[in-house]
Design goal:
The complex is a heterodimer.
Chain A (H helix, E strand, L loop, with lengths): L3 H4 L25 E7 L3 H4 L3 H11 L4 E7 L3 H9 L18 E5 L6 H10 L14 E5 L15 E3 L4 H13 L5 H7 L6 E2 L9 E2 L26 E5 L1 E2 L9 H5 L4 E2 L2 H15 L3 E5 L9 H13 L4 E3 L10 H6 L7 E7 L3 H6 L6 H13 L4 E8 L6 H20 L8 E7 L16 H14 L6 E5 L2 H11 L5 H10 L13 H10 L22 E2 L4 H12 L24
Parallel strand pairs in A: 1-2, 1-3, 3-4, 4-5, 7-17, 8-11, 11-12, 13-14, 14-15, 15-16
Antiparallel strand pairs in A: 5-6, 9-10
Helix pairs in contact in A: 5-17, 13-14, 14-15, 17-18
Chain B lengths: L1 H9 L16 E3 L8 E2 L4 E3 L7 H11 L25 E7 L7 H13 L4 E6 L2 E6 L4 E8 L2 E7 L8 H7 L13 E7 L5
Classes of the chains: A alpha/beta, B alpha+beta.
Chain lengths: ~575, ~200
Amino acid sequence: MVSPHDLLRVRKPARYVGGELGAVAKHDDAVRLRFGLCFPDVYEIAMSHLGSQILYSVLNSLPWVACERVHAPWPDYADLLREKRLRLHSLETGRPLREFDILGFSLQTETCYPTVLWMLELGGVAQEAGDRHDDPLVIVGGPCAVNPEPLAPFIDAAVIGDGEDVVVELCDAWLASSGRPRAERIAKLPSIEGVYVPALGTDRVVRMRKVLDLDAAPYPVHPIVPHIEAVHDRVTLEIARGCTRGCRFCQAGAIDRPARYRSADTVRRQAREHLTATGHEEVSLLSLSAADYPGIEELCRDLAAEHAGARVSLSLPSTRVDAFSVSLAESISRVRRSGITLAPEAGTQRLRDVINKQVTDEDIMTAAEAAFASGFELVKLYFMLGLPTETDEDAEGIAGIIARITGLGRGHGSRRGKIVTASLAAFVPKPHTPFQWEAQADSETFDRRRRIVTDALKRERRAAVHWHDPRRALLECALARGGRETAEAVRQAYLLGSRLDGWDECFSSDVWVEAFRRAGLDLGEAAQALDPGAPLPWDHIRTAVSKEFLLREAERARQGLTTPDCGGVRCYGCGAGCKMAG
Amino acid sequence: MRAFERAIRRASLPVAHTQGFNPRPRLVFAAPLGVGGTGDNERLCVALERPVPAEAVLASLRTALPPGLSPAAAHSLPGVKAPAYHLIPWAEWEVALPLPAPSGAELARLCADLLTRNEVRVQRRRKAAAREVDIRPGILALSDAGYARLRMTLSLIADRSAKPLEVVEALGLPRGDERVPHPLVHRLQLAPTPG
């Protein structure tokens, strides 16, 4: 293993030491299967991911499974491993990747694909599925797995949907088939619902797995308390999964229906248990649209009241503008008021109708006013640029909203430096959404519209506008909508040195342009609109909603027509097949 | 620091907090160790909102602290607003050098030579700026401790202080960077807190 003398040579050595409270290292004979939970980013990013904590806890609760974490090293640690002729290894026991029975990679963002290949190489595992013999079973899961084709040659299987139950079934099946030839063992895996094996082709339909009863769903009683954390030490509680609002750009909402909620009793109990087990100072309520949770205000009020004495604060990472209210604002965080986040996404009502984000300008101002009036001093806004049918006028609308909210905050006597921080994200058409066939706006358009916003706010010192390189959004588009031929571009990018592309300092657009060229593909073409009549590379993966519904929604978008939230009560035929009264 | 804050919350100790926008628990470490530093006898002061018997604090922290951090003793300082940690005069250290290291005889010679000098100037980096300081007055004792280790007693008093890696550098030994292995700095003890 790497000695402490050498560990001090790298940045943030605490990433590599392990031994955290809540970490589980099993050495006993009862263990029959070793599962490497791999996250293709560095420690502090990986440790913020709730899904991994859940899977870690689920797997380790089985006496016959040892689940250990593997994170992407920062390049300096990778160099150190190479210098010492060591393989990439787990945190808990220092076991090289090669020695695990199953490796599960969590794909949170498409740009992580070459990092997966890098981790396999560092860990001594054959990168091509066809080259594996005694190697571990390599599987992927997470949001990007709804189109795993760009990784198809490199993975043995993909898990689509909620992983808690599938992952146990997979371990069971893999252990049971021990001793059989590898190809035979892998060919049996699709009998588990939600498991897709690329080597067997795309004829077979794979249905997404869903955990419906969140109260019964597993939850880590002793989460790992990381050595390095983002900002505040925080307990993250998932209060809901799924969303029925139907914003047309949103993949998370489209694929995961019906919306299901954890009961307030369960949430309160989990908050109590987690705070006791960790000593964290903040409870964060996670869901796609927290304000849609029935009784959110009461829940927030109860949590704030129960834990305020211990100076634990409460936060809602994202909230819907139209459901935000003064009382909700007041029930959040009596202790530490940082900022609230609102996501208008588009600058005009017209465009908001197109994307089906049913929020009015008045709703936005009311929400901001409520926030300032309750003592919040910072409002964070999320917008997208490059949405279908967008014009320069919509960009001007964004600037107007930012300016008006800043003015509101000033009027409340805000003493902070920045009153508003706005983030402009480039729209990426995602599989399984009504906008999956749309073209993506090019960099020039993004830059031009972005400048409309920043020019209009040039003299406004109390508002800050952030954005990322739009060329990264082009890459996301190409990988998100890519078919199996895109895998060669992923391989080339890896060979050209692509690693940890989620980090600005690592991402290179030139590398990817060249990688696509070497693969015989044109990266720019990926942004073009797709033919709705043509088959899609992800047609064999079935999520909650039907293709017919997506086509209908795409047409309604073109006409500027909105579709209301079904609310689990009034059905619009999305295909999720919920049992509803209406 | 964070590990202690969390442990104190896990232990449900009634810790006092700072005022203002972002209240922090009132914890003070005596002469905090740098990244990678270890210590046998560290000192921490926790301000409590109401008196709690020292044995109870010790017991609950013992249960709440993560592996590797174990409290040895606790005592109450009733009526004391803040401990005089800034007045602690010296600390005793043991520095483990990475191998290959000079022999014991060679290290003993280097230490003896350094102690005969009137002045030992090193660059000390504070924030962005670096300035040259004379650390000789801060070196109270220095010797070879066998097995590629150095033992040293260094002053903590402002303007007469010396740090372990500065001494290592002054001896002509590598203090470590991205390419070169680092010595491991271990604090054996802190002088008693005055008052």
